[in-house]
Amino acid sequence: MTSGRRPRPLRTRLLLLLAVVGPGIITANVDNDAGGITTYSVAGAHFGYSLLWMLGLVALALVIIQEMSARLGVITGKGLADLIRESMGVRATAVIIGIVVFANLANTVSEFAGVSASMEIFGVSKYVSVPFVAVLVWLLIVKGSYKFVERIFLVASAIYLSYVLSGILANPPWGKVLQAAITPSFHFDVAYVTIFVTVIGTTIAPWMQFYQQASIVDKGIKVEDFGYERVDVIVGSLFAVLVAAFITIACAATLFANGVRIETAKDAALALGPLAGQHAATLFALGLLNASVFSAAILPLSTAYVVCEAFGWESGVSRDWMDAPVFFFVYTALIVLGAGIILLPIKSLVETMLASQTLNGVLLPVILITMLKLINDKRLMGKYVNGRIMNLLSWATVVILIVLTVILVMTSFFPGLAGG
Amino acid sequence: MAYLSELLGREVRDAKGALVGNLADVLISPEGNGDPYPRIVALAIKRNGGEPKLLPWGGTEDLAGNKIILQLPAGAPYQPTGNEVFLNRDVLDKQVIDTNGFRVVRVNDLELAKIGDDYRLVNVDIGGRGLLRRLGWEDACEHVAEAFHRELPSRSIAFTDLEFIPRGDLKVRVARAKLNELHPADIAAILEDLRPRDAGQLIRGLSDEKAADVMEELEPEFQADVLETLSDERAADIVEEMEPDEAVDVLQEMEEDKRAQVFNLMEPDESAEVAELIKHPEDTAGGLMTPKYVTVSSGIAVAEALRRVRAEAVAKEAETLYYVYAVDAEEHLVGVVSLSDLVLADPASSVDAIMHHKAIRVQVDASREDVLEAIAKYNLLAVPVVDAENHLQGIVTADDALDLILPDEWKIKLPRLF
Can you give the pTM of this predicted structure? Predict the structure, then answer.
């Protein structure tokens, strides 16, 4: 995908690639958040290597969807919330944005649950850690500069590699791992289907499309540089799924092999200690803390932007409460509610975390169908509409997701149907 | 008075009462004889899901009822001139510029009102009431608000204050003059609400000088993003018009590839100035200074000095012309004299006699804190920058120095997300 002009020398192309890279990789990093880590841990601990095969398909679906999101951003120069509002009117926008805000709130809750869980491993009470992180995140964004925050997080995102290390330290039987990764299997019971949908929901979360598209648009990436952005998106997506696979492997090699049942990522980290060594456990906990704080900062901010973008409220004029009240209200409310719900002694943490990831899986088809409608709009995309193969693959993804969601709902309400 | 959101989908019948279809869009022509409120020129009518048909507007139709009766005899379709704005397709739900409030807003609804005996587009609803109306909750919320003795939040702008964001698919070239009349700082405030590509589209419609003035009001990073959306030639034209120190800042923020292209397309003398400045690190006096200053040799008479200042081309573009710097034959800085001293002095006396011999100066590698301190401590409007051998290199003006301290307190913007 080069411009029609003279071919660029290799050095120029490499420099351009570096200038464009970012949105895809950052989105992928936020993707492996607290809820994601918990989900992959539980998948590995309860089902061993048997879910690994689906991660390959999830990676394919993620690449397809994030590529479309990048293409929408680069070609139209507008964010997803912008496009939804402009082509679908107020009612549809209100429904879709409402769903996104709700899902993002659920995700924010799970980020603070991750903060609480990882700090408890280091012996810090959640009544200290959660309010501390909430205030820290709020102040960082409101009083600090986002560029500064982003730099901290980008450096911190190298910590995601700690999961790959944890996986290797757990010393899994690689032959068996590889075989499981290419052997599809499926069975109908509530726990299995739930984790199946949840893995998809946490890996391909609806907020990602909004976040990635907005960051591409704000970066001002040009149509002729779309090829580079595509590399960014594909590398980012593959990295995200690779990390997910190693979390699953680490837990499968240790916890599943020894029949340890876990409910949270904290359980996973604690259980890893005696089985894979203290280093693996500490790395795992650090990774969880980093992921939770990173996403707890990004999700509320991204939500506030999406809401203001869709309804045309001030978001970029000044930091003043008076000038951008809705922006600050949404941003603050998400942090306060997210942190507050975790401190209420109502539900077990894992329920909230897993439920929000399942919710993502259920909501995803709505966002995807919207995206497909937009990307096939000739007036909007010109010659960059989906090709036949892209449409086939993406519609297949949507149909599979809907079928899985229906199975999930059926098995939850009628457990007898699946035969236990 | 009628709202577009309530008109859309309404049944349209011809004069004899036969069904024509449902209203899909309302067309206005904003370029009609300087009229501030454009009149309706045609309706787009959809029947059975086909392509909408354009029918001319007679001028005596009524929009108050629950159906629209066309007044022109059926048959002749409307012939578009290419200047029409489709209110539903091009304006409703889109972002537009409020040239009165200097911001970008989203259109929630459009208000058509009867002026004389014909309907015209008068107001653009950008407030909460429009949103509620679209959701069908206006009446319900009205009752709730009344119970609490409050009013629903409603905001609208007059159509005369509206400017479209130019896009490929929108052919109208409405009164770009409106934008051109605004102060560069106000245009910059509007651009900051936009994405780089839309900001670039707006810049494209301005003159090079105006565009350069607007650019200087933006953050260098955003300037670079905007310039990168323009052609290399146009970007070079705009950078040439910018103050050299600002031009350096924006060039440094650009991609290497684009920077080289733009730089090569600049006029040789402009690019030479930039090349001189770009050698210095951003945070030093050298990185902050501008080469637009005026010098005279110290030995000449005041009258001769004034004549030279008038003749000096650089004096006309100089950022500040409060000081005239005295140099010797090797360009060493030997003194400074304020322009007012020069004007008030006896024309026959020599510059050497009235100038300050110990001019406050900073070294080219001095930190920005040192520059700020020199300006603040000695109440200067500009401070000269010299190299190790005391050769005059440039000046840092007080307003550029002010920009260095202000970002933390005054120029704060919401964080850009990405």
Answer: 0.76
